[in-house]
Amino acid sequence: MSAESRIILAGAGAGVVAGLLGAVVSLITVEPSLSAAIDYESMRSAAEAAVGTGTATGGHHHGAIDLAAGGDEEEVVPRAVQATLGVFLSVGLFGLAMGLLIAVVAYGLRKLLPELSARRAALVAGSLAFVAGFLVPYAKYPSNPPAIGSHGDLVARTAAYYSMVAISVFAMMIAVVVAARLSARWGWFAAIVTVGVGYLVVVIAAAAFLPSVAQIVGAASEIPGPVMDGDDIILDGYPAAIIGGFRLGSLLVATTIFGVATVLLAAVVGFRARGRGRAVPQAGSSDLVLSP
Hints:
Elements: H1 3-29, H2 31-53, H3 79-112, H4 118-140, H5 154-186, H6 188-209, H7 213-217, E1 227-229, E2 232-235, H8 240-276
Antiparallel strand pairs: 1-2
Helix pairs in contact: 1-3, 1-8, 2-8, 3-4, 3-8, 4-5, 4-8, 5-6
């Protein structure tokens, strides 16, 4: 098996383990907020339907609206399955994808910087992937539970998010290559500081240029306000606790996946490097991946 195949296989294994752990974190931190968000979405649909048909009776109803009005759609996949097997499947696949991504980035770093050890390459790769691929885009477009936005603006919101991801990742790739070139003349500290500032300038400018979720949905705020019937509040606005819990849970899940996948991959390639000894491979050999 080639060195490339070994590191990809190690990344896949690390990603699967990270995804399963991430799914457990999701069940604990995300699912309660998601269930509450789905309940609120049903109540909001019922409240809006009541106002639209003129059957709202006024007053501060909160959850007293008939939930059946917003819950007539039959679920293709039962909620109980979504909240268990669905979580493990979706988060596990995401973990697998991120493990493969980190492995590919680590391999690229070893090709760009042969002096970098396999373990450090994996650790740096995981850190860069987390920052550029998740954390920076998340800072601009944090995860939102159901009932934030609508199906009509889903394409625009998705396009804006992935535009931020693409800009962040591309800027990080350029930053790494430039830092490698500058390090020979300026040293690593000056090179990293320089490209770090440049990266921040690019992503901050991109975040300022791209529309906010509120601008996309065409409202003063992305968070839905209360459902009104004249001067009467039929249903309160979106609970801040649900949004905060959902976003925090999503952040914890992603941190778990990237962190576990990175540490496991670094441990595996480091162990394999020690097992192979410190033999210096020929220049240009793919065995650079597993040298200690």
